[in-house]
């Protein structure tokens, strides 16, 4: 389903939305990578497509959780951009190493963006790192002046709900201006099925 939506975004020329979706996809297969790279090239983003090719190797190992192999591939990449860093942050976050990756990204002079925050929050949610997720949401918003949008809020609701903190999730929906009622409540209710 993700691949079909991704293809639709790229066919319509909505490359930024495609990039956001691609960064948040829970699993990327060969079709995902081919769709993304072909779509980028069809939209005149040849360099971006070529730059993301080494990331393919990096992400493909993600299913095996082979962090050392990923790190080796990542370190050998000649041009690390925010996309490759976001990919590493997501996987590091799922393995409990997000703080180190964020520090290293900052040392390299790259600032996190809204997509990076979605990736890190999603990783924290899937790994059950509630406090880290809360910390990143607050610090990235405060420190880097990234205005929370619906995707960020949905990640936070998912983070609390997956951890069984339904009251915290409810309070977040009620207190956060970026949470439209239907999306926030749907995310919370969806999580209740798993409780």
TrEMBL record:
One Gene Ontology molecular-function label: RNA binding
Keywords linked to the UniProt accession: Repeat
Record carries keyword DNA-binding: no
GO biological process: plant organ development; RNA modification
A Pfam family it matches: PPR
InterPro entries: PPR_At4g14850-like_plant (IPR046960), PPR_rpt (IPR002885), TPR-like_helical_dom_sf (IPR011990)
Entries under PANTHER family matching the protein: PENTATRICOPEPTIDE REPEAT-CONTAINING PROTEIN
Protein name as catalogued: Pentatricopeptide repeat-containing protein
Native species: Erythranthe guttata
């Amino acid at each position: 389903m993700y691949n079909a939506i991704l293809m639709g975004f790229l066919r319509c020329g909505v490359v930024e939305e495609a990039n956001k979706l691609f960064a948040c996809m829970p699993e990327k297969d060969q079709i995902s990578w081919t769709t993304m790279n072909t779509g980028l090239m069809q939209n005149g983003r040849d360099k971006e497509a070529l730059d993301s090719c080494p990331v393919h190797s990096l992400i493909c190992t993600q299913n095996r959780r082979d962090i050392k192999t990923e790190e080796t591939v990542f370190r050998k990449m000649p041009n690390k951009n925010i996309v490759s860093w976001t990919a590493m942050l997501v996987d590091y976050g799922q393995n409990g190493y997000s703080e180190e990756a964020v520090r290293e990204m900052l040392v390299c002079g790259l600032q996190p963006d809204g997509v990076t925050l979605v990736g890190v929050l999603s990783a924290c949610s899937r790994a059950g790192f509630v406090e880290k997720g809360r910390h990143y949401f607050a610090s990235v918003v405060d420190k880097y002046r990234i205005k929370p949008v619906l995707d960020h809020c949905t990640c936070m609701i998912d983070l609390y709900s997956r951890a069984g903190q339904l009251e915290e999730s409810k309070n977040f929906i009620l207190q956060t201006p970026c949470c439209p009622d239907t999306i926030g409540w749907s995310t919370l209710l969806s999580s209740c099925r798993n409780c």
